[in-house]
Batch of 4 targets.
Target 1
Amino acid sequence: MNLFTLPTGIPYLSMIWLSLLIGALIIAVLPGSWKNGMRWTAAGASLISLVLSVLVYASYKPDGTLQFVERLPWVPQFGISYFLGVDGISLPMLLLTGVIMFTGSLISWSINERVKEYYVLLLLLVVGVFGVFLSLDLFLLFVYYELAVLPMYLLIGIWGSTRKEYGAMKLTLYLMVGSVFVLIGMLAVYFAGGRTFDLIAMANTATFSRNFQFAFFMPMFLGFAVLAGMFPFHTWSPTGHVAAPTAVSMIHAGVLMKLGAYGCLRVAMWLMPVGAQFWAPVIVGLTLLNVVYGATIAMAQRDFKYVIGYSSVSHMGLVVMALSTMNQTGINGAVLQMFAHGIMTGLFFAVVGRMVYERTHTRQLPELGGLAQVMPFAAIMLIIGGFSSMGMPGFAGFFAEFNIFVGLWQRFPVIAIIAALSIPITAAYILRVTRQVFFGEIRNPEFRRLPRLTWQEYTAGAILSTLIIAFGIFPDLSHPMINASVTPIVQRLNGASQVVQQFGNPVPFLVK
């Protein structure tokens, strides 16, 4: 955006994740009875990281270059360094993480059981998320990646609901298997790329052979794609969404799944463009199942939270499908959709988990109804998030999906036509849920005496809904920086396409 220039020589990126780490350390030493102090400390640390993220975002020059770079030797004998930087791809994810963490800390105000442990784990989890989006050293990225995944087991297993132990274990096992594949790919590119973990150096100087990329692209891509909820590795995701406490669901769907898609683009596709081009038809075929199947299963759900969980499978399928287009428009759409879906699903889970479920103690759609009479703000929030999910003009999801389908048509027109079936299905389940939960007669007389929404819920809802509308009406708030940073990746992919055309595609009938 480049609205102003920040003073140089200050480690802004390190300060973003350190603010959360310091907050976690302060909470860890507070007396156990100081629950409000812990809540305010978590909110304050989250607000500092959000403000810093906004400042970096607003001062970024959208020219596609890496900015705010920080670099220190860490383990030089293995080519490992503390190497941070941001460009137009990572910056929207940085802003998204700051927003979801701050609003999630507000939504967590109702947590009363083991408050200290909850906030420490939540803050550590988001330290890992920030670190992945900031890291330009592959080893450092993997360390942060594991830090972002591991606290989820305890957060769901202790503070969750609805088969929480099963959901926590299933999520952890799936993501650990994905991590193994990422580790295999990481070691492969390390030894083949000059024994360095520097992503910039590997992308610029390493020459991975065609056969090497054919062999190791998919393990690395799939390792990250497990976290993105790609079919057939998606089943952990709805289960984890439903079992997790509200703020953890917001972080899980809002930013944690984005780590997977980001890793697919930033690491696998950037380092191995020939492998990406070769396997693209297979990836687009798998993600087609995500998109249509996820939307169809969401339509059939009776549990409010499961509807949102399966909608995330469908929308994240669109993200990975857009990456498989390997063209400028499609990949722009993927990054835009990651941001739009993160804000939208954060708002969805705040409504269903905190505003509705914690008051009514039910998520079953047939048992709900007429809640707009007692909580009109929650109804408005669900409608705003629903419009974005449906891809309505003027909301963040529209411009993202427009780019995705245009990019998809350019390379996979048949897939684009089939994937478009998800649009009316999405509209159907969003309208159905909105009608059943918020309109009609109040089915349970007790619902007329539900507690009023709190200031924390109003604040979180207002922030998330404002961003959905702002980035929908003004897509240039993010599109120029994304476009400039996607361009060099697309240039690498275009150069690789000539190699693949000579060798042949594994599923040629899908390609235009």
Note: The two ends are 36 Å apart (CA to CA).
Target 2
Amino acid sequence: MLQNQQPAPLFRSFNQHNQIVSLADYAGDKNVVLYFYPKDDTPGCTIEANDFTALAGEFAALDTVVIGVSKDSCDSHCAFIDKYGLKVDLLADTSGEVCELYDVWREREKNGVKSMAVLRSTFIIDK
């Protein structure tokens, strides 16, 4: 897991519009709240996305963009955004590369069964 004050790993991934987004796009211009979540349109992930959406104006006033990352597809992200009127960009990390860069692809145990999953995590990246 990244430590406080450690440089954020650079990434490039497709957003919900199938456009490449890179951390370098924001360097020197915007702070970035980068949050990782397990799956679109699930209860906890929906609450989290709605909470970030409710605060979108406050983040923007602080020169900050909010970007969510999951292993879902661009199409899944579009449906999720449309269903709830979300005001955040969502990256489709279908290969898991960004999750691995940020060390959030972890083994978990649920009901005695071990599996790999995205560890819900949020990183605040200074411009």
Note: The chain has a mean pLDDT of 96.
Target 3
Amino acid sequence: MTYFTDDHKLKPRQSRAGKKREYYAYFTLIFLATLPLACLTWTLSATRRMELPERGPIKAAWRQAQFITPRIFSA
């Protein structure tokens, strides 16, 4: 027979604000990491086509960060 006591406590869950801060910290790091590559890609695309691409480098890096960050938290 198994005996369960009231002293057995589970780990407290991380608060919602803490998770939000962690998400934004990861988002910022990923955004800053993808920004140089997005700028390079944007510049190369602009020089090849001789016209400005539809999305700017900041918007492209932002979308990449929006795609990558939730995948980290779902794992």
Note: The chain is about 70% helix and 0% strand.
Target 4
Amino acid sequence: MNIYDKKQRWKLLLAAFAMIIVAASLWYTGILVKRIADEEKQKVRLWAEAIQKKSKLVAYTNRLFKTIGEEERKRIELWAEANKRIIYADNNSDLTFYLDIISSNTTIPVIVVNQDGKITNWRNIDLPTENDTAFLYKRLEEMKAKNPPIEIEVYGNLKNYLYYDDSRIFSELKIVLNDLIESFISEIVVNSASVPVIVTDSTQQNITYTGNIDSTVLGDSVMVKKILSEMKSQNPPFKIYIDNHKSYVFYKDSDLLQQLKWYPFVQFFVIGLFLIISYYVFSTSRKAEQNQVWVGMAKETAHQLGTPLSSLMAWIEILKAQNVDELTVHELEKDIKRLEMITERFSKIGAVPVLENENILSIINESVHYLRGRISKNVSIDIIAEQDDLTAKVNPSLFSWVLENLIKNAVDAMSGKGRITISIKDLGQYVYIDISDTGSGIPKNKQKTVFEPGFTTKKRGWGLGLSLVKRIIEGYHKGKVFVKESSEKGTTFRIVLNK
């Protein structure tokens, strides 16, 4: 199997393995995302239930406090009535019952004022200092703000006013119950809803509760609508009932869940980028090593050819001195010149060649003339040029090497029988040279690998000819060479040169 076929197969296997890893990672991440999303939804439901329970507890405590407040007012009214009865009682009346009523009030703070607003009596108020009237009047103002006064008639049209506050027991009960409610709700909310949550009324417009939402955002109606729309797009809202009124709970995924959704793609991007950079670095290093090998082999070849060439040139002189047939000597000289050109070509590998404006048609004619006598007679070579003086920047020695390789490949593709057409076109800044044959063609999946070192379809080929072509045209001449078209009827290689 060709080395590039094996390489392609390994690439496909590695790509398939990478796709399996990607699919498995996405599948597992999807499972994790679904689990976390379900847990978050459950926590939001628990949070919503806590809101419902809070609403019920608040309603219950309000009813309880109202009932206790009404009972305490009744007690104060009874206490005021007992005071009134004592005032209007005659000397023979039994006041024990009324005195018991008055003395039984040991918890409800009471202040009595006359019509002029002057404090005449108080009970169950702890003064910071004895007879601290400023403190008493301050407490009086607090009582006025909390509860309406109870009138007490005294001596004709004179009236006193009784003000009172919640009893110590009632106040302590309020504090304890409120603290229990708040601590219960706070613990549930903190432990349950780690995601942004909004509760609206039945219209889904007015916000009643929020959780993990920036308070500054809530003042902006546009931002609120945007957040609700974003939440609705991520998760459909669900219904709850608060104080027997329908409400809707909106929520969106937590930052952790959103990051987890994007994590595989970020991970694949980072790994992919690392692999691409690594591949580029290793590929560049490998190409640099290959170039060193190419240069070393080329220069060594040129060096090895130098010694026999010198010997052959000496033998030519000896043959001339011995009056050997001139035609034979002439042909030998031509081959020696050819070897000198080949040696020159190899010696230029790795060095920057000198590019000059040369007549392209002249170089092509010279190369074709040399090859005609050394290829099958059943192969015809036609040259089509728009003009005779078309020039481009080339190195004649290296460019003729390119032509020879392409023509020899074409001859091999036609099995020594067919037609080769070389057409030259002037397209302003560039010169296009198309070399077409009538061979069997190149499969489409191999048209890009034919220029790779080692690629060959011949049993004894080295796969270096087209690689040299690409290196000379693109590396040294800064041009382009590629398979323009190929089919069962033949192949066309195109060379693009800068004028």
Note: The radius of gyration is 52 Å.
